[in-house]
Amino acid sequence: MASESSFKRVLERAGLTQRRKIRRAREGGRLASGLKAERPNEVWTVDFKGWWKDREGLRVEPLTVRDEASRMLLELRWLPDSRTETVRERFERLFERHGLPGAIRSDNGAPFASHQGLLGLTRLSAWWLALGISLERSRPGCPQDNGAHERMHRDVRRELQAGRIGRDQAAFDLWREEYNHERPHEALGMKTPGEIYQSSPQCYAGTPEDLDYGGMDTRRVHERNGCISHGNERIAISSALGGWSVGLCPCPDQDLQEVWFSRLLVGHLDEKTASFRPINRGRKTGQPQPEVTP
To answer: pLDDT by residue (tens digit) across 65-98?
Structure first.
């Protein structure tokens, strides 16, 4: 009996098939890659567990936050929505309880990243940067980049989703407590995450009023339209940075200035055309990173 591939080749030769266009996955801007945490709080991973319907038919899609090195599940939280304000409030509580991580790894979806935004930044991820937290994003369509987090999600699916547990935060908290303190991991030498994890020494002191770029010239980004004033011109940068200042650093080419947000080079300001050029991902700069103080 002929195989499926044989039928396909015959149909293609006869002109009876139509090639499907492959849609290239869009990336929100992978700002760091390959960082493997060796100690607690070097990397936190974050995602929304795929949604399910509870026993009352209501949609449930909990937020999950995990420490990579210790496997500690820091958050398993039902939220009424995934708006920036809602998610930010939960991270404020996490930072108050555990301190600040060195980096946060997410996928390229909202509210963590934006396909259209400058370097994929959103107001949430810009806030993380302003706090001094580095960003890392998984490659589109590559869940293995966050594989351990996805394996934890499989446990949630098998033990909570299968039971149609819903908007019952007490049940989520009980499951998280068991996961952290009663389930040993082979990768941890058969210790539990709770035995390994310790809070970050970098305490959360609240959101700074603005960023200090040392001796750099600075411009405040307009809260709503994302523009800065330079000379007599208004230049669009990004609404994700609204309310924060960016730092300007002269380039060897005197008609260009580097534009920094926190410790991230986001583009260049062209003095001749009074325009902003977003940075090309992967392009390196010869200028040192600014010492930014929240």
So the answer is: 999 999 999 999 999 999 999 999 999 999 999 9
Give the C-alpha separation, 106 to 47, whole Å. Answer: 6
124 exposure class (CB count in 10 Å sphere: 0-12, 13-18, 19+): buried
Bridge partner list, 1: none
The structure's pTM equals: 0.84
Residue 56: per-residue pLDDT = 87
3-state helix, strand, coil in the chain (%, to 5): 25, 25, 50
Residue 108 per-residue DSSP state: S
Count CB-CB contacts under 10 A for residue 144: 10
Fold of 43-196: Nucleotidyltransferase; domain 5 (3.30.420)
Rounded distance between C-alpha atoms, residue 55 and residue 163, angstroms: 8
Q: How far is CA 218 from CA 1, 31, 73, 227, in A?
A: 72, 23, 39, 13
SS (H, E, C) 194-234: HHHCCCCCCCCCCCCCCCECCCCEEEECCCCCCEEEECCEE
Please state, in angstroms and rounded to a whole number, the distance separating the CA atoms of residues 72 and 195.
9
Would the pLDDT of 30 be above 50? no
Distance between CA atoms of residues 267 and 170, nearest Å: 46
Delimiting residues of CATH 3.30.420.10 domain(s) in the chain:
43-196
Residue holding tokens 């009663």? 182
By the 8 A CB rule, do 228 and 238 touch? no
Q: What beta strand segments (E) does the chain contain?
A: 43-48, 52-53, 59-60, 63-67, 73-77, 103-106, 134-137, 217-220, 227-230, 233-236, 245-250, 256-261, 264-270, 275-278
